[in-house]
């Protein structure tokens, strides 16, 4: 992976960068490349190099088959990554799928704008079912905390083999929800850098912003948008504004069945009040 990234640079820089490609990266100078996530002001980042679940992350969802762990089977950087291993179960097209996630309580006063970034590797097949990867939750207006099932939330996921983003009211039931489906197939069998912006302040607008997502630095478009609810409704949910994001969830959570045992790895996860960027 590192060699391929180095291959992008102009030829004149190759000699200079040969050392950086062959050895651990040298100390960075401000301005010459994107900041490492942990250097971005106010950012929280997880590289999983402890070789176990990082401090503060606790198991949350655990349904059907598979396992969520930190291991050294594949990493974007370093030795370790978060690994959702061999998730399978349920019936495609029917509700109920494997879910393996962790949750994390953000420090107080995180604020209403959450940028995120993670490198994700999916193999061996693109699921048709809704596969959530990351979400961030916040108390409804007038509230300052509360149990996770009282919180509004933004989500990044894939659905029908494409990237998807959603705004949800509290779960359960989590709908009626505002769904945005991209025309970009999810990246398979290689690392992809996903970034997201959950702008719960949204300036003077009356509602929190729709989620935005970037893939390898290019913003995704959403040619398909709809309200999902069961039973169906035509009424769009009101995206309530955010005072502070309070909870993160990461891992993989399928809302419908998954017939092909599938692995995901996530590395270099980071969140912060400003864009963190890909390397
Ligand atoms: Ca790592």
TrEMBL record:
Keywords: Signal. Gene3D superfamilies: 2.60.120.200. This is Lipoprotein. It comes from Myxococcus xanthus. Residues 1-29 form the signal peptide.
């Amino acid at each position: 992976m590192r060699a391929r990234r180095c291959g992008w640079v102009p030829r004149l820089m190759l000699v200079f960068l040969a050392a950086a490609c062959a050895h651990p990266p040298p100390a960075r100078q401000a301005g010459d490349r994107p900041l490492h996530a942990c250097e971005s002001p106010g950012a929280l980042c997880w590289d999983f190099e402890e070789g176990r679940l990082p401090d503060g992350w606790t198991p949350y969802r655990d349904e059907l088959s598979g396992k969520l762990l930190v291991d050294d089977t594949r990493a974007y950087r370093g030795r370790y990554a978060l690994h959702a291993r061999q998730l399978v179960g349920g019936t495609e097209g029917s509700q109920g799928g494997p879910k393996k996630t962790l949750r994390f309580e953000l420090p107080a006063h995180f604020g209403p704008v959450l940028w995120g970034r993670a490198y994700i590797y999916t193999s061996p097949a693109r699921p048709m079912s809704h596969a959530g990867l990351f979400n961030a939750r916040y108390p409804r207006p007038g509230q300052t905390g509360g149990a996770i099932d009282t919180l509004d939330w933004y989500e990044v996921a894939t659905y029908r083999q494409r990237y998807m983003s959603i705004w949800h009211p509290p779960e359960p039931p989590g709908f009626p929800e505002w769904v945005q489906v991209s025309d970009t197939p999810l990246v398979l069998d290689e690392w992809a850098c996903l970034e997201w912006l959950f702008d719960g302040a949204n300036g003077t607008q009356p509602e929190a912003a729709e989620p935005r997502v970037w893939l390898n630095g290019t913003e995704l478009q959403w040619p398909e948008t709809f309200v999902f609810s069961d039973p169906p409704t035509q009424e769009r949910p009101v995206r309530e504004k955010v005072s502070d994001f309070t909870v993160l969830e990461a891992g993989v959570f399928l809302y419908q069945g998954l017939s092909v045992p599938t692995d995901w790895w996530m590395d270099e996860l980071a969140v912060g009040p400003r864009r963190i960027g890909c390397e």
